[in-house]
Structures are given as C-alpha cells and as structure tokens.
Task: structure prediction
Amino acid sequence: ASYLSQNKVTSKYNALKREVDQLKTYQNVLVSDYNNKVRQAVPENFSGTGFLISDKGYLITNFHVVSSADSVFVANNLGEVFKVEIVIASREFDLAILKILDTNYRSVYSLPYYISKNDCTLGEKLFTLGYPKEDIVYGEGYLSSRLGFMGDSVSYQISMPLNPGNSGGPLFDADANLIGVVSGKQ
Result:
C-alpha cells in the first residue's frame, strides 16, 4: 500500500512540475515579447526652429518644441548634428534655452544680427526665417498688435504665414534686428 501511495505522490509531483514548467515557459515568452517590443520602439522625431543667442553655443527655441523630448539634437545649415542640453525652460513663456554639448561644435565668432532695444510699432514690417521643412523658409508680415494672445503683454501678435516647424524661430524687424521668438500658442 505504501508503494501505491508513494506512486500517487510522485505522479502528483510530476504533474505539478509540468504545470510549473509550462508557467515558466509562458512567462519567458511574455518577457521576451515585452523586451522585443521595448527594443523595437521607434523614437519619435519632432522638429522646430531654434537660433543662436551667443557665440558660446547657446540657442533659444520654444518650450513646446523640446518639452517632451528625452534627448535633443540641433542641426546647422551644413547638415551637422549636435547634442544639446536644456539649460532653462519656461512653460509659461514657451521658451527654452539650450546649450550645445558636442565637442565637434565650432563656435561662431559673431552673430549675424543684433537684439533690438526698441519696441515695434503697429504695422511695422517683420520677417522670420525657419525650418518648417528641410530647407530654410522666409516669411514676411507685419505687427498686427502690440499685445499677444488674450492680451499677453510680453508677446506681440503678428500677421504672417507660418507653419508648425517655424516654432522657436527668430522674428526680425525690417533692419534685421531680433525682436522675438515665433510661438504659435493658443
């Protein structure tokens, strides 16, 4: 009788071992599938415009251009790409200051524009340069209000054709003085 009893225990043990082995196999398949999906994740690629504000590799763009990025790169007009870090970011003003970290970056000696110290006047002609696509795009318009969206006193309202990739681009007066940063926020 003890042989039959021991045989039943061994049989139950073997059945339990098979079930545990099946569960381990199923768990390994789930983990493998999960790891493959994580590895196959395609990085998202967003773009906007930014521009240098110093000869030391500091740039400015919009906060919404870089806010959800886990890494940020900039490209120049020669197609060179550089890693940057976000130095300061303000959701409230939709601005971000970036710093080029890449050791291959060669500093510019001087910026080709000045920051305007004067306020713009209503109807003043303005222009922007931006990268809503692969090549630079020139846009022309005028100052339509000295207040921004919903009466924002730190913004201007402009009348000018713009595209989503113009976000973060420079806004110039007719004398090519920098007067602001393009931001399409509502």
Q: What stands out?
A: The mean pLDDT is 83. Helices lie at 2-39, 63-66. The longest strand covers residues 81-90.
